[in-house]
Every structure is written in structure tokens, then in C-alpha cells.
Amino acid sequence: MANTSDIRNGLCIRYNHDIFKIIEFLHVKPGKGPAFVRTKLKSVTTGKVIDNTFSAGHKIEDVRVETHKYQFLYQDGEFYHFMHVEDYTQIRLLESALDMPQLLKEGEVLTVIINTEDNMPLSTEMPASVVLEVTHTEPGVKGNTATNATKPATVETGAEVNVPLFINEGDKIRIETEKGTYKERIKE
Q: Structural domains in the chain?
């Protein structure tokens, strides 16, 4: 058993007969009244995100988890297939267990969180950013750079990302996986 002082991002807890992963948290100590912790929880079974507030000192049941590196192999309908990078065993996960499946490229290595009680995969953690090639975008109009103007671009995984006007087809760009936003252009 843990309490609210042990809350951190990525912690998996048992709450309302389900397992949730803490995405965000904020310790609040108001001037009047008791302290509390405001959290954003994501269900590892359904992918649903809920907001919850725990009072200070509240007991929470944490779930013991292990993390392993898995390489993405391919997608088959709603299932995504992964291979363990050390012992080459394969697992498949539902799309709802993935954070940003539209940014997943074949060969990408990510961290899979596994419940130690039953060895079932709970969720995945993408790398902080991924490098993808732009496959389609409209050409930028010359002289239209006075503001931070953006345009939609389709990357090699099929995801659509807003990019600055100077990005062209064939450019490689770094995308922040947490928000799915453009970060920078990669120069070869």
C-alpha cells in the first residue's frame, strides 16, 4: 500500500476495480483546508482518461510493474505486434494500450509496462520523440512567413502533423510523441 506522497507520473494503481496509470498529478496545499493531490488517470484496459482528486494521506493500492524494451514489428487490424529485444518473444497489444499508435514506425523500440502478478502487458511508453519522413504536404507560399504559420503534412506512418511552411516533401522531422506536435527539421 502506498499513499498520496508516493504519487508520480507513470505509477500504476488499482482504482475502482481497474488498473490506472497516472499521467499527470499536482500536489495542492490551499491556504485554508487540507492538502490534496489532483490527478489525471488513464485506464490501461480501456484507454479512458479520468480526473480524480485524492485527499492528502489517502491510501492507494499500487501495482508492481516491470518495464521491458520491445520492437514494433507490424500492425494487423486492431492488434500491434511487438518483439522483446533480448529474448525475441513476441506479444500483441490492442491499439487502446498504445499512447500514440499513429506515430509508430516499424522497427521503433518502445517500453512496455508489464504487471508482475500475471505477466500481462498493461501499457506502452513511446520514446520522447520520433523522426519521420514527410510524404505529402502542400508547398509553402513565398512571402507568407511573417507569423508562425503552419500547414498540415502527412508523415510516413499516415499521421497528420502541423508543420512550418518551409517543410517540404521528403524532409525528415522530429515529432514530440507526448503531444504529437512538430519539434524540428532533421538535417542530413
A: 2-62 (2.30.30.30), 65-125 (2.40.50.140), 129-186 (2.40.50.140)
Average pLDDT over residues 143-160: 79
Grid cell of 178 as nine digits:
507526448
Is the per-residue pLDDT at 119 higher than 80?
A: yes
Neighbours of 165 (CB within 10 A): 18
Q: Look at strands 59-62 and 2-3 and give their pairing.
A: antiparallel
The whole model's pTM is what?
Answer: 0.71
Band of residue 127 on the pLDDT scale cut at 50, 70, 90: confident
